[in-house]
Amino acid sequence: MGVVLLFLAVVATFAGWWLSHQRLTAKPWLEVGVIGDAPEPTSPKTAKLGLGTFLVVAGSLFALLVSAYAMRMGMADWRALPMPTVLWFSGGLLILASVALHMAVVAARCDEPGHLRSSLLAAGVCSLAFLGAQLAAWRELAAAGYFTPANPASAFFYLVTAIHGAHMLGGLIALGRTSAKAFAVPKDIAPQAAAELTLSVELCAIYWHFLLLVWLVLFSLLMRWTDDIIEICRGLLT
Q1: Does any domain span residue 34?
Q2: Which pTM was predicted?
């Protein structure tokens, strides 16, 4: 547990460092001074490479959790949990958030600020509702008496959903800053500022697609749809 938390802290530190260098809160259209002294805009390739590096690290963390889950569930003291129905609802909300951010990317590229703002707002609302649904699932299991460290299935459920939720909260900070930029954009926005806003939206969309993919894997694992695959892999390893 301590190793996992330390690994998560390293991931969060890397994410904070990377986000701090993306000028997410900058307003280039309001900056004054000599043109030659203007700060260099963030390169799309550099920004996406940085995000890709972070996603590889985060994906490795989730892969470790999935591997530990698969190995632990084969032991005698493992008692599977009844999955709350609200998890289906939360999964649908995350799909909607991902779709909304894809629409936001299209709106940003087509210079449609109205559609961009509404799409970003929809993505934020769906993401917050997803976290609310996850908390409701926690409360439902706790009320049913499953909030106990004696059952490793309970511990793993809270661990994997909490780490996924922590990544979602981190993404919401970046999404909030991007939305603030979108709502503050004037009608005569400079091309460079428009390009940076589009880049911020694209980065948020990529991150949300990653969160959706991870959640689909975790959801399949929690619902025990992957039991046969796990057994096959376990047999190959032994």
Answers
A1: no
A2: 0.77
